[in-house]
Amino acid sequence: MRSDPQHEPSAAQTEDVYGFLEEVDSGDQDNTRRAANAQPEPESEPQPVSESGPKPEVQETIADIDDSNPEIDALRSSVRVVMRNVPSSAAIVTVACIDPETNKRIPVGAAISSLTTVSMDPPMISFNLKEPSKTLSAIREANGLFRIHITSANRGGASIVELFTRGNDAAAYSKRRKNLKRLWMPRNKKEESQSESLAPQIWDDDVQAAMECRVTQEIPVADHVILVAKISSVHKKDVNIPGILYVRGAYTRVEGTQIAVHTATPPVEIAQEVQTLWDCPRFPGEEDRRQYVEHIKSLVKSNKSYMEPGKSSIKRLASALPYHPRALGINLYILVAECKRELGLPNPQLPASQMEMPILNEFYGRISPASREKLIDRAKKLVSQDIGFLSLQYGALMQHLSASNYLKDFLPSDIMRPLREAGLVGTIGYQSKGTDNDIYKLEQIENNLVQYLRTLEFSEVLTTSMDDLLRRCGADVGAATYFKSSRSRLLAMTHPKVYNRDTLDISGHVNAAEERVIIRRLIHFLFPSNYSQYRKNRTVDPNEMLRRIHVHPVITGMDIEFLVAKIEHLFQSTQRFIDFAPKVYGLLDNWLDKRLEWFELQDRVKQFVHNMPLRATTWDTVDQMAAMGIHQNAKVSVPGQEWPQSVGSGALLATLVAKELKNFYGTTGTQRENMAIAKFLKDAYDYDVHPKPGMMAQSGVEGMDGVERDGSSSGSEMREAMLANLNVDISKRDRKTDSE
């Protein structure tokens, strides 16, 4: 459905030569964007709907225009340009159809932009489809019965329409089933929510109306067929939202603003190399970012429509990529400008001051505390040289700092507060003479927004868009783009009780062990082995996912958004759902080992306990294993045993952890850690730890029963008893080490 004249879609995609949404049959192997003078072979006679059902009236075919000369080519081009500027409706037609191979119902349908009313007495509509068309054939097979869906003029509505612009084949059906939240496929007219047509019904929130129809006339026109149909019933929600329009190759609201659509499946013109970003075994690093930039540049140079002036071409480019570049700190405006410069093309779009700025921002995503301090120091130096930088548009200011203005959980006050403490700026409330979206104005909006959010319940804030929140507190909705990426930070600031330590056990800058635990928990939360559960869980915002798995959403040190996007990519690109779960669980192999030697397991347990003693007393077995980099199905070779044992089953791991906690007690741990270890060993094993020599003087901590003891320890006996229970031989060397 792209307006790009150079785009060559596959046969399963939308025909949009004239700027309209018209479904093309997936079985048509010819190039769907063929030269305008190439017409399909006309059928000898119109195909009847059905011998048993009422036959629609078929008009005589209107003669084709001889378009084999340059004048007709020029005329066609002029008509295309004119009609691209004429808004048309965007709707969806669905029709009952059974796959002859599987004998199952399939969601056949098409996006149309030619829908219009013909009469109100009786209610009649018309629209046209390109022939050959699987949708048209299905309508004829269904006795002319079908269903029209009208979507709302928002991103959700546009996304639903987009699902029906890719033709009708197995891949398209899979995408529709995966992405439509409420797709109803009636089997017979006795079922609830039945309809006369038995056509697929879309009950998603962004579908505001549907109409049951029957064809009364077919009018062949060149390679299209105009269908005239009578409306038999209307299903309308109690809403008053305008429907979506299609103009200039884009989905549009009535007031003229475009609606961006993030398609789940990348358009076919994307070079395969761009998709290699998903091949990163873990998270993208600096080399991956640089390669992604080069791949995007190759794409832009091969499709010059992305170099057209205006934001719309940049938005199209961003939506055509597998992962949004700004999430990796890539500035598309500067990237496109560099492509123009390398091709020797005029470049009037980018200000001269930004021409020499790098494509890759140094600061992007979830920046660490150290990077945050570095960014603030850079801001101090910049402002000390010229305070006028603060009057720049916020995005331009951040660009001068080599920072993305979409930094996760970074607010304007994070810069202004240190500047104010250093005496570089005045008090809050200063009105600059620059643009409305400079940092002064955004800091005021931030303060007003924080005060307003504190008056709302957490559930209300969670479900209200940033646009609406800003509108309610009297702020400019245009500033929403600067606060959307900091939503979790704002929630944590205004609703601290929801984000307390009692419910969240991982926060701050995560280390490698915590990263592995988060990844395991996240995949477990998504439940990729259950179709209905995954479809439900995948719609949850990644930050809310973190909170639900007991992780503070304002963590740094890992790119949770990339992981969620990669799993979604696997979902969209996997033909059969049964193959999806193994791919997702296979991601864990990049972090967790499945086979260990005995000494490796001992070493990992020791490192885990010494580095995270409190986690060793509170986390369950699977979290402990993830922290150690061990897969929950891992096996370990145990001395004296012929077959490897499962690390996670039985008491093996718990015994090793308990032994190491006993050894760690009273050494380098804090008083809080020692108390937690003592309590854990007492509760879990009814074991009283014996303070080591000098521990009383250092910490003043008494034994579990309040009696001070000497340095004697039952460590050797405890360890032998534990390992004996595991049928593990204790060598003389191990005994000697214990006694020492």
UniProtKB/TrEMBL annotation:
Residues 1-71, 696-740 are annotated as: Disordered. SUPFAM superfamilies: FMN-binding split barrel. The keyword Cell division does not apply. It comes from the Eukaryota. Residues 83-253 form the Flavin reductase like domain. One of its GO terms (molecular function) is FMN binding. Pfam families: Flavin_Reduct. Residues 730-740 have a biased composition (Basic and acidic residues). Keywords: Oxidoreductase. This is Flavin reductase like domain-containing protein. It comes from Leptosphaeria maculans (strain JN3 / isolate v23.1.3 / race Av1-4-5-6-7-8) (Blackleg fungus).
